[in-house]
Amino acid sequence: MSQSDKERKRITVEIYNRSYTIVGQEEPHHIRMVSNLVDQKMREIHESNPALDVSKLAVLTAVNTMNEYIKLKEECAELINYIEKIEKEDDD
């Protein structure tokens, strides 16, 4: 067995009443946390749009999640730039 095969972990999670087996290198508690967040987001979107089928609900969940991710990346970049600016001013 290769080293990468040994590092891979398998965990079964439930998202929106369906079981999924996730295989990867992340720790099981991390995969559970991510899965729970996806489940919560799907349920939140379903409350606002109860007529959506599961496929559309999943895509809308992915779009909403990526939107939040991009906003957070932009905020992070702004904070890093701000910190670098402050550090540069302190050095001068």
Number of helices: 3
Based on Cα principal axes, name the global outline.
Answer: flat
Compressed to H and E, one letter per element, the order equals HEEHH
Number of strand segments = 2
Percent in helix: 55-70%
- Percentage beta strand: 15-25%
Q: Indicate the radius of gyration in whole angstroms.
A: 19 Å
The major β-sheet equals:
2 strands, antiparallel
Class by helix and strand content?
A: alpha+beta
- The overall pLDDT average reads 93
Low-pLDDT regions: none
Q: Numbering strands along the chain, what is their spatial order in the largest sheet?
A: 1-2
User: How many angstroms separate the termini?
Assistant: 55 Å
Q: What's the structural blueprint in terms of helices and strands?
A:
Layout: H1 3-7, E1 9-15, E2 18-24, H2 28-48, H3 54-91
Antiparallel strand pairs: 1-2
Helix pairs in contact: 2-3
